[in-house]
Description:
Layout: H1 12-22, H2 24-39, H3 41-48, H4 50-70, H5 83-94, H6 102-125, H7 128-156, H8 183-203, H9 208-224, H10 228-249, H11 252-275, H12 277-284, H13 287-304, H14 325-332, H15 342-375, H16 383-397, H17 404-421, H18 423-427
Helix pairs in contact: 2-4, 2-7, 3-4, 4-6, 5-15, 6-17, 7-8, 7-9, 8-9, 8-10, 8-16, 10-11, 10-15, 10-16, 13-15, 15-16, 15-17, 16-17
Amino acid sequence: MTSAPGRGERPAGFHALSRLLESAEFARAFAVTVLATLVGTHLIVATAGVTTLRAVIFGLCVIAVAVLVVRRQEISLVGLVPTTLVLLVVWAFASVFWSTDPGGSFRRWIAMLAVALLAVTIGHIRDALQTVRALGDVLRAALTVSLVLEVLSGVIFDMPLRFLGIQGNIAEFGPIQGIFGTRNLLGIVSVVALITFAIEMRARSVRPGLSVYSLSLATALGLLSASPTVLVLAVVVGSASAALTLVRSVRPESRARVQWGLGAFVVAIGVLLYVRRTRVLDLLGATDDLSMRANLWALARYFAGRQPVQGWGWFGAWDRDEQPFVSINRLLAEHHTTALSAYVDVQLQLGWVGVLLFCAFGGMALLRSWLDAAQRRSIVYAWTPLMMVALAVTSAFESFTLYGLGWFLLVLCAVRAGQSRGWRERLGATTPTGAVPTLPGG
C-alpha cells in the first residue's frame, strides 16, 4: 500500500510530466508540431476554420510556457529574448492605445506575441542542426502535399480546388499556389526550403537521395509559382552564400579586410541596380507588378505621413474594415491585405519609431549571425545568416515577416544569433541550449 505524498513533496505524476517536458523526444515533437502548424496555416484555416488554428496555437503556447518553466535552471532570464525584440513588441503594444480599433489591435498583438513565444522556446530547446532538421522535414512534407494536390487539381481531375485556393494551372506550368494560398507565398517558402535543404545536404544530416529529391522539389515548385520575387530571392541568397563561403575560406587575419571589401561591393551593386532599375524590371518582366506596388506604397506612405512617429496602430495583416486600410483599398479599387512590403507596413502601423526598431532587430540578427557563421567550422551555422538575408529581401516585396511563419523565422534567427554573439554571452549569462536529456531508455 503506497502512502500519500508528504507536505512539500510533489506527486509522482508531476515528476513524470517534468521528465517528459525536459526530454529530447518531446522537444523534437514540439518543434515539428509548431513548424507544421505555422507552415500549414492556410491549409488549417481552409479545412478546419480560423478558430481551430487559434486553439492549436493557444495550446502550443501553454506547452511552451510549461517547457520554459521546467527548464528554468538551464535558461537564463537575461538571455531569454533579444533586447531589440522586446523593444519592438513593447512598441507594438503601446500602439494599441492610439489605434483606430484598440480591441482588434490588441488581438493582433496577442497573435504576434504568441508566435514570438513559440520561436523563443524552440530557439532555446533545439540547437542549430536540430532546428534545420525539423524545418526540413516539415517543408518536405508541405511541398510534397502541395505538388500532389496541384497534380490532382490540374491533371487528374482538371478542376480547381477552390476551398484551398488552388487554381489547377500546373498543366500550363503555373502559376501554382500549393497549400499556401498564393503563388508569392509558395515562392517564398520554396526559397526558404532551398536554403534549409542545402544546409541539410552540406551537413550530411539526411541521405543523399532525399537531399536530391528535396532540392529538386523546392526548385520545381519555386519555378512553377511564377512569382517574380523568387528569382530576386534566389540570386541574392546565392550571392550571399558565395560571399559567406569566401569569408569562411580565408585566413582569420585577412577576414576583416575581405568583409569590408564585400560590404563595399554590395553597396556598389545596390547603387547600380537602383540606377538601372527600369531595365532590370523589364528583363524580369515585373514592370506591371512593380507599378501596382509603387502605387500601393505611395498611398500607404501618404497615410503614414499623417501620423509619422507613432503610426496607426499594430494590425500585422490588414483589417480591411479599419482605417487607413479601407481608404487605401477604396482609392486603389483593390483588396489588399498588406502593403506588400514589411518596411512600408511597419511605417504605416508603427511609424518611424517602429521602422527603426524593426530594422535594428533584423540588422543586429543578420550582423551577429553572419560574423558567427564566418568563424564557425560547421556549415549548419550558415543557415541563420542566409535565412536572414532571404527574410530581409522578402520584406522589401512582401509583408511575410510580420506575422505567421515569416515572423516566427525572424524571431528564431534573432534568438539563435543572440545566443552566440550577444552581449549576454560576454557576461556569461547564457547557457548552452539544445543539449536536452532523453527519456528513460531513450
